[in-house]
Design goal:
Elements: H1 2-22, H2 37-49, E1 53-56, E2 61-64, E3 68-72, E4 74-76, E5 81-87, E6 94-95, E7 103-107, E8 116-123, E9 126-129, E10 133-138, E11 142-145, E12 150-153, E13 157-161, E14 163-165, E15 170-176, E16 183-184, E17 192-196, E18 205-212, E19 215-218, E20 222-227, E21 231-234, E22 239-243, E23 247-251, E24 253-255, E25 260-268, E26 275-279, E27 287-291, E28 299-306, E29 309-312, E30 316-321, E31 334-335, E32 339-343, E33 352-356, E34 361-371, E35 382-388, E36 391-397, E37 401-404, E38 407-414, H3 420-423, E39 427-432, E40 439-443
Parallel strand pairs: 2-10, 12-20, 22-30
Antiparallel strand pairs: 1-4, 3-7, 5-6, 5-8, 8-9, 8-10, 11-14, 13-17, 15-16, 15-18, 18-19, 18-20, 21-24, 23-27, 25-26, 25-28, 28-29, 28-30, 31-32, 32-34, 33-34, 34-38, 35-36, 35-39, 36-38, 37-38, 39-40
Helix pairs in contact: 1-2
Keywords: Disulfide bond, Signal
Signal peptide: 1-18
InterPro entries: Cell_Adh-Cytoskel_Orgn, Ig-like_dom_sf, Ig-like_fold, Ig_sub
Length: 446
C-alpha cells in the first residue's frame, strides 16, 4: 500500500508540474521534482516559443518633405520591449531616445533623407532585430540642366538629356512636330532620351516632365535639326559667252543645313584620256567671280556639301572672246561661227615657221579646225591676217585636209614687210564669215 501511495503522489506531482509549464509559469520548487522525460520536452518547447519573433519588419517609405513618416513592426511573444535605432550609412546604428513602441514616427526633411531605421525587440527570453527600412524624403524636383538643341545627320542618333535635383524622380518625355501640340513619347521615361533620326523629324521639339511625390516640373523645350544631303535648287548658268577682260559671276542656289561650297574647274589627266575636277583656291561661296581671259576657266562646277553628303552642280561652259592683247595660245582654241580653231601643235616641224631678213619675212602657221556645224563647207569661209605692231598683213588660207576624228588641217601664210624678229611677234587674226555676223578670234604663233 505504501508503494502505491508514494507512486500516486509522484504521478500527481508530475501532472501538476506539466500543467504549470504549459501555462508559461514556473511553480516554486518545481525544479526539485524529477519530472518524467515527456514533461521535460514540453518545458523546452514552451521556452523556445517565448522568445520574441518579428512577424513583419518596417517598410521603406517615400514621404514629402514636411510630412510625417511612420515605421511599424509586428511581433509575437510576451513581455516585449522595443528600442528603435537609426543609421545614416546602414552600418553604424544609433539609439533613438524615447523610441520604445511598436512604431516610430519622424518628420520628413532633407537632413533625414536616406536614413535607415530598425527596431530591437526584447523579453526575458532573448531579443531579435528587425530588418531595416529606408526613409526617402521627396523633395520637389528642380531642373538644373535643361535639354539642349541637337543637330544630327539623318539616320544618326539624337540625344536629349536633363539634370534635376530631388529624389525618387520619374521622367516622361514629350515631342511635338512643328506647329503641333506635345504628345507623350512612348517608353521615354529616363533622364536621357535617344533615338534614330529621320528627315521627317526635322524641326521637332522635345521636353521632359520630372516628377516625384512632392510635385513635378517641366523642362524647357529643345529643337531637333536633322541634316539631310544638300539639294541644288538652281543650277549655275550652263553657257556664257564673254569678251576678254569681262567679269564672270556664277551662282548656285541650294537647300540644306550647314552648307559649304567649293568651285572646281575641269582639267584633263596627264594622259589626256579623262576629265578631272580641281578645286579653285578661295572659291568657297555660293557664287564665284573672276576676270575672263583666254587662259582662264572654260568649264566649271560647284560642289555643295554638308555633314550628310555632297552634290555637284551641272557644268558651266565659258567661252571667252580673244583680243589682240589676249590671244589664244597653243594650249587652247577659239570658237568661230561654224568652227572651233586652234594651232596644230603636233604638226611636223612645229605649228609655226618664220623665215626672212631685216626687211621682209614669211610666217607659216598650221591650224586645226573642228566643224561645229555638220554642214559647214570644208573649205571654210575664213579670212586671216598677221597683225604686227598694229598693222594687219593679209594671209592666204590653204585648202583644208581631213586629219582625224573630224579635225581638218589648214595653213595660214603671211609675208609682212617687217624684220623676221618683228614678224615672229605677230598675232594671227582669223574671221569666220559663214554666219549672219562675222566672228573674229586672235591666236599666237605658238
Amino acid at each position: 500500500m505504501r508503494q502505491l501511495f508514494v507512486g500516486g503522489r509522484r504521478a500527481a506531482a508530475a501532472a501538476a508540474f506539466a500543467a504549470v509549464v504549459a501555462a508559461g509559469v514556473t511553480a516554486p520548487g518545481a525544479t526539485a521534482l524529477a519530472a518524467p522525460h515527456a514533461a521535460s520536452s514540453v518545458t523546452l518547447a514552451a521556452s523556445t516559443t517565448a522568445r520574441p519573433h518579428v512577424t513583419s519588419s518596417p517598410k521603406s517609405v517615400v514621404v514629402v518633405t514636411g510630412h510625417k513618416a511612420t515605421f511599424r513592426v509586428k511581433t509575437s511573444g510576451v513581455g516585449l520591449t522595443y528600442r528603435w535605432y537609426v543609421s545614416t550609412n546602414g552600418k553604424t546604428w544609433k539609439k533613438i531616445a524615447k523610441a520604445t513602441h511598436t512604431s516610430y514616427t519622424v518628420k520628413a526633411k532633407a537632413s533625414v533623407d536616406g536614413h535607415r531605421y530598425r527596431v530591437v525587440v526584447r523579453n526575458a527570453h532573448g531579443s531579435v532585430t528587425s530588418k531595416s527600412a529606408k526613409l526617402t524624403v521627396a523633395l520637389k524636383p528642380h531642373v538644373t540642366r535643361q535639354p539642349h538643341a541637337a543637330t544630327v545627320v539623318s539616320g544618326k542618333k539624337a540625344t536629349f538629356s536633363v539634370r534635376a535635383t530631388g529624389n525618387a524622380l520619374g521622367y516622361q518625355w514629350y515631342g511635338a512636330a512643328p506647329g503641333k501640340s506635345y504628345a507623350k513619347v512612348s517608353g521615354a521615361t529616363k533622364a536621357t532620351y535617344a533615338f534614330t533620326t529621320s528627315a521627317a523629324k526635322n524641326g521637332y521639339r522635345y521636353k521632359v516632365s520630372v516628377r516625384n511625390k512632392a510635385g513635378h516640373v517641366t523642362s524647357a523645350s529643345a529643337k531637333l535639326t536633322v541634316i539631310t544631303k544638300p539639294k541644288i535648287t538652281k543650277q549655275p548658268v550652263e553657257e556664257l559667252d564673254v569678251a576678254s577682260g569681262a567679269t564672270v559671276k556664277l551662282r548656285v542656289q541650294a537647300s540644306g543645313i550647314g552648307l559649304t561650297y567649293q568651285w572646281q574647274y575641269a582639267d584633263l589627266t596627264d594622259d589626256g584620256d579623262d576629265v578631272v575636277y580641281r578645286s579653285i583656291k578661295g572659291a568657297t561661296g555660293s557664287s564665284f567671280s573672276f576676270t575672263a581671259k583666254t587662259t582662264s576657266y572654260d568649264d566649271l562646277r560647284v560642289v555643295v556639301s554638308n555633314k550628310a553628303g555632297k552634290v555637284a552642280s551641272d557644268d558651266s561652259y565659258i567661252t571667252v572672246g580673244s583680243s589682240p592683247t589676249d590671244p589664244y595660245g597653243p594650249d587652247n582654241g577659239g570658237f568661230l561661227t561654224s568652227w572651233a580653231v586652234g594651232l596644230d601643235t603636233d604638226a611636223v616641224g612645229g605649228a609655226t615657221t618664220v623665215v626672212g631678213d631685216d626687211t621682209s619675212a614669211k610666217v607659216t602657221s598650221r591650224f586645226l579646225g573642228l566643224a561645229l556645224d555638220p554642214h559647214a563647207d570644208e573649205t571654210l569661209d575664213l579670212a586671216a591676217w598677221l597683225v604686227v605692231e598694229g598693222v594687219a598683213y593679209p594671209a592666204t588660207v590653204t585648202p583644208k585636209a581631213l586629219q582625224y576624228d573630224g579635225f581638218y588641217q589648214f595653213t595660214l601664210v603671211a609675208s609682212p614687210t617687217v624684220s623676221k624678229a618683228d614678224a615672229a611677234k605677230g598675232i594671227w587674226k582669223i574671221t569666220d564669215s559663214s554666219g549672219a555676223k562675222p566672228v573674229t578670234q586672235y591666236f599666237t604663233q605658238g
